[in-house]
Amino acid sequence: MKKDPESMFSLEGHACWIGPEAYNMKLSERRANSVYDYMVKSGIDKQRFQKKWFGETMPAADNRTKEGRKLNRRTVVIQIFEK
Predict the structure, then answer these.
(1) Cα 48 to chain centroid, rounded
(2) Burial status of residue 40 (CB atoms within 10 A of its CB: 0-12, 13-18, 19 or more)
(3) What's the predicted TM-score (pTM) here?
(4) 38 near 49, Cβ under 8 Å?
(5) Which of 61, 24, 3, 44 is nearest to 11 (CA)?
(6) Is the separation of the CB atoms in 53 and 28 below 8 Å?
(7) Looking at the DSSP assignment, which residues form a beta bridge with residue 13?
(8) Where are the alpha helices (DSSP H) in 9-65?
(9) Which of 22, 30, 43, 69 could form a disulfide with 16 if both were Cys (CB 3.0 to 4.6 A apart)?
(10) Which of 39, 69, 35 shows the shortest CA–CA distance to 53?
């Protein structure tokens, strides 16, 4: 990110299906915000990020398994475009 200061990024928080849906939505928001805070504290301009959260709605793996739920607890960083 520091080598390409024109790039913009989307930070997308996710959660597994353990717990209430509303809680998982807030949890995924906290995950996206945590990565955002880390990046900004590391010197990346906050204007380069957009944040989204999806709760348990977009699983990357099977929520019926422990390993799958572990993979679903994540924040994904996506390069969305370069100026």
Answers:
(1) 15
(2) middle
(3) 0.91
(4) no
(5) 44
(6) yes
(7) 53, 75
(8) 21-41
(9) 69
(10) 35
d(CA 50, CA 61): 24
* 23-38 average pLDDT score: 98
Instruction: Give the Cβ contact number of residue 25 at 10 Å.
Output: 16
pLDDT band at 14, cuts 50/70/90? very high
Residue 83 confidence (pLDDT): 56
The residues with which 79 forms a beta bridge, in sequence order, are 9
Residues 11, 36 contacting (CB under 8 angstroms) = yes
Radius of gyration of the chain (CA): 14
